[in-house]
Amino acid sequence: MNMILLWTVVCAMFVGHASAGTESIKNSVLTLGVDTSHGGAISYLVDNNDPTINLINCHDQGREVQQSYYAGPDPYRGAQWSGGPWPWNPISSGDAFGHSSTVLSLNNTGTSLYLKARPLQWALNNVPCNCTFETYITLDANGAFVRNRLINFREDETDYGARDQELPAVYTIGQLSELWTYAGDAPWTGDSLTQVSYPVPGPPWQGFTAAENWAAFTDGIPQHYGVGVYHDNISSFLGGFHRTQGKGGSTDDNTGYIAPVGVRDITHNDEFVWCYHLAIGYLATIRGYFSSRRGMPCTFPVV
């Protein structure tokens, strides 16, 4: 899913409004939206104090904040991408040919948002996955708690083994170009944070260790405002930046990338439930939010 397309999809651009097809929930601090015209990927995240700036990049269907899974074979049904064979790889929003995944059901209570989708295979032309993606989102203070569930029903029962998985893939706007984490040996003690260096342009992305299980892209202002992602118990991360640092909005090609990387064998009948947190704000606020969410139970609610 770390690919660059040559066309741009509609994204949230207008003051206080998201694009057509966006379902959103809001609290006193932030507003979060999913794009139902692109499989329900998270495409909209704004600070209510400045709703003119969508912090999520949705330049193409490989961006946004979304589920993406990898399994064999290589190639899957002859798929080719990025100059080589491409595996089984369904993603939330759609495929590299511009087709969109289908939202099967959605429930927005105003305080929580649930959706179920039939994703497409990224590197194939309009080929649905024999699987479903579900997402359940709630907001709290300056963050969001996102629960995901993959239900697989592949006809091919071959076990292709475990692979690295993006849990999730997060693409942020180009204005946020400083990548931060904690890389020391005294996590959650208030020890100094680490700014991660990375090659430009990416991909390939830079691997790094996040000892507190989170990372954030921020601007260069002294207090460092931005967006972070936290996945409990995952310390292996990827990150980097594509094109020009320090400028660009939600529809521009410039983007930051973060992914907590877990290892999972996605079998033919797998049911995979996993959770993560997003947070916005100044860097110290993001870190504090994630600290207070450590160890939260990860279960998918009955809907």
UniProtKB/TrEMBL annotation:
Signal peptide positions on this chain: 1-20
Protein name as it appears in the record: Membrane-associated protein
Record keywords: Signal
